[in-house]
Each structure stands twice: as structure tokens, then as C-alpha cells.
Design a protein that fits this description.
The protein is mostly helical. It has one domain. Helix 1 runs antiparallel to helix 4, helix 2 packs antiparallel against helix 3 and helix 4 packs antiparallel against helix 5. The chain is globular, with a radius of gyration of 18 Å.
Length: 158
Amino acid sequence: MPRTPRSNRLVLAAGAVVPVVGSLLLAACGDDGDDGGGTAEFCDAVAANQDTLFGSAISTVDDGDAFVALYREVGDLAPLAIEDEWDAMTALFETALAFEPDTTEVTEQEVLTEAYSSEQPALAVRDWLAENCQITIVVGTVPPPALNVSGSTPAATG
């Protein structure tokens, strides 16, 4: 089934949760010696692709496929300290890309749930990149829904 402009917009909307480039790479980073990918290798991969990872516009399904593939590729280099958080961000894009209106395979609610659940991991990635790679990015957050409370308020006692 061909993707619609609505599904492409959902991929773009999901991207609002993930970091957007805040400033340029300030310095390289060192190896942390854990059993995952090396910090230096991961930092180098993020730095080399940061415009695409954090500031690219996804306008077609092919753009979305390439974007998710890049997140997976860079994620393969992630040190254990940040691997789960990076994977959570990647999962958001995978879910958003799989969304198709008028099907039940991946629902709009699933995309929104994934967006909310990836917010804290995105903040952790932001902090980790700043501390370990000296890369500063901005994280967009998902605003909570507005509450519509009606009715009377209890009278103050006193």
C-alpha cells in the first residue's frame, strides 16, 4: 500500500521528539572501554552524521528508510552506557515509518505512545553526547495534552 502525505507527516512529527542540532561539534571524545561500541567510534559517527541524525527533513518514504537505516548503523556503534536509549529513539522512527492510515498494522496511537516513551531516552542521549562527545543538541519534547476540566471548584474553607 503506498504511503500517504499523512503517514509522511507522522514520520516528521515523530522526529520532533528526537534531538535537533543545537550547535556544532566542539571536540572529539575518548574510548570508555566498555563491552559495547567504543565511545570515540560512536562520537565520531554521530559527529559525521549529526546534520542527518538531528536536523534532516524527511519528506519521502525513501528518506525515512534511509534515516532509520542510519540510526541503526550508528546505534550498532553505541557504547552500552547509551545503547538502550539510542535504540528507543530508533524504535520511534521505525514505528512512525510503519504507520499507514486505514490499516491496523501500526496505529496512530502506537506512534504517539512510542513518541512519549522515547522522550526520556532522547534526553539521556542529549546529556550523554554533551558529557562524552562534547556534542550539544536540542531535544524537542512532546507537550502533554491539554486538560479540559469543567465544573465547579470546591469552595475554600477557613
